[in-house]
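Dear colleague,

Thank you for sharing your sequence with our group. We've completed the structure prediction you requested, and as agreed, I am returning the results in plain text so they can be pasted directly into your records. Please verify that the sequence below matches your submission; if there's any discrepancy, let me know and we will rerun it promptly.
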Amino acid sequence: PLLRRPSSDTIAMGERLQQLIGATLVAYLIYPLFVPLQPRSLDDVKAWGLTGPGKDLPIPVMGVYAFKGLNPTMTVDFSHAYDYDADGKSFWLDFGPDSVTVAAEATPTTFAGNAKFKDTSPSPGYLPGWYVIKQFAVLRYRVQFTFKSDSVAEIRSCIAGCWSPLSWAFNKALGQTLERRSGGVWARENYPSLANRTRISGYELVPILSKGGKINNNGLRYAKEKLAASGATLKGGVLK
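Please find the predicted structure tokens below.
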């Protein structure tokens, strides 16, 4: 039998459904732009640090750290790690407002004239911290850490989905690692590839709060000095 042509009502219903699906997809993609950021205090790092759902994961890097050499990001909290694979010794971390705080009104250029706080890794130019962290969230920027030993992890970055051309190009262009240094510091290193460990750039993660709630006074002092130099407000995700 010949197929019937859909009625005008059926066609109109299909068009409305497509519009609804499209609007829902757009809303899902951009909603992080409208989620407010909340002021944080470094003096209260014990109150908001290491409170994420992954706080008990047995990962070598568990703690709260200050970014040294990457601006205008301020701190990263690995208690928001997830999808831990004990056999593969890997986990994921979203680089969004829950795990990363920023100097909200500052840009990387704010720190350019200060040798102690200047960038040592590619940074987002003239963009303020609040915008950078929201864009990370919109792009669903997340990172997989796979530990080859207790002191070295290889990194895979996913930007706008692990399947996206952007993710493929980024991981193809750089070999990325996290390497333990002395004093509890971890170095995020960029190489031409994981096979060619000729350093291109990188930054450090300076410990502030370790598992068990111990404050690293040197790390906390560094973070406070960096925030003061920025003249900005420390902000992160809304605490739950």
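Summary note from our side: The mean pLDDT is 91.

Kind regards,
the structure core
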